[in-house]
């Protein structure tokens, strides 16, 4: 970073790139005495509070601070606010507690205090203060300061006008009033002989997104003016145009057309960062593709991403995740599963770490193209990604495995997967949020085990219902009875009816009747079986489904 005019340059750059990348590697203070050199060191190291304290100490000592150092300090405060910048990789909220809060301007802040202490307030000082006000939401105050600047017979620079144009929609209510204020600012730029730059037009396009129906025609006119002045639009320019034309409630035809025109314009081009909003283009374009279900346009957007180093325009890891998540969601909806799996292997996990919803989209794609046999493999990926404690995702996976019957090989792999899921419920997740047993999850696991002929494990699951205070479904009891009949196991059949009775299932009498009809029981077995039902209190002598078949009628010849 150049030593001279350092902060004037840096403050201009905050419109172009994130300020965190400008942080120096060393953060240690070397100069301890009260001096202007110590002030400049603290400014260079972005020590906002320490710099303000040093400035105050210099004034208290009667030391005159040079105009350049004073302006450097003002630039620093207006860029970061009354706080030191975040120096790690944690996300930093745009609207933080500072001296401007959501349009509420707090008086006696350091920016204004130091501005008022300046012996000479030049264009640079006014520009820093106005842009700081706009950045932290004091839009009306910014326009008032600009008026004061004009009254002092000073002219604004292009950065000041860019900030005011972006703030214009915030100080007017009606769409026409917003646009009239923007036009007035543009006329003042012309009168003051200030040449607009790319960020001026981008600020204009961004402001037009808040100007309703008149924005469409004016946005196209703005692009024409950019070309006439030899200013090439950046990705942020096209992102704003898409934002103007694309509305979720509007017909999709026009939305797709404007996207196609934009993609034709940018196809094959390499872009570099010129505006902080450049990083929004790809995720916004992919959102339009997803909403309109236009897979061909999505491929064009992704092809542009692969040109040169355009991938750098995706933004941070969070924005990259949004882009790839939308793309993967669209692929799962629109493409054949073979194509989806090809992209799955290409993107995951090197480029995209899917969230639980992304994995649910994949499961639904497997279901659509009848490739549920891959569920056990996908479950391994889910576990590696740490999504195995997401109940909605686990329930979706279990329900797909339990819904239909498959070949013995597939059912065996499903059973292994279901037992692995069961182990998660049983062992918990330590510090992670553990899964909690639900009747649906227990039913699906039991159904999968029954389909794979894992009768003992299924029987253990049925007993687990009572332990976990859950009630099995009548359909599950029917599945159990069918499995027991296939193995001709009357003892388990009678126990099944007793378990059904213990849960007070309405279908217990019919289930008991079916057991008596399906299995040949000895007189002793019948007696023990019916006596057990009486002890459970689930039958009524006066209500029989069919005379001679109800278990209590079987007791009559045996009763002393």
TrEMBL record:
Pfam family, one: Rib_mS39_PPR
GO terms of molecular function: ribosomal small subunit binding; rRNA binding
Chief place where the protein resides: mitochondrion
Swiss-Prot/TrEMBL keywords: Mitochondrion, Repeat, Ribonucleoprotein, Ribosomal protein, RNA-binding, rRNA-binding, Transit peptide, Translation regulation
A Gene Ontology biological process term: mitochondrial translation
Keyword Nucleus attached: no
First and last residues of every PPR repeat: 197-233
Localization in the cell: Mitochondrion
Domain of life: Eukaryota
Gene Ontology cellular component list: mitochondrion; ribonucleoprotein complex; ribosome
Residues annotated as signal peptide: none
InterPro entries in alphabetical order: PPR_rpt, PTCD3, Rib_mS39_PPR, TPR-like_helical_dom_sf
Coiled-coil regions listed: none
Family recorded in the similarity comment: Belongs to the mitochondrion-specific ribosomal protein mS39 family.
Name this protein carries in UniProt: Small ribosomal subunit protein mS39
Organism the protein comes from: Oncorhynchus mykiss (Rainbow trout)
Taxonomic lineage from the root: Eukaryota, Metazoa, Chordata, Craniata, Vertebrata
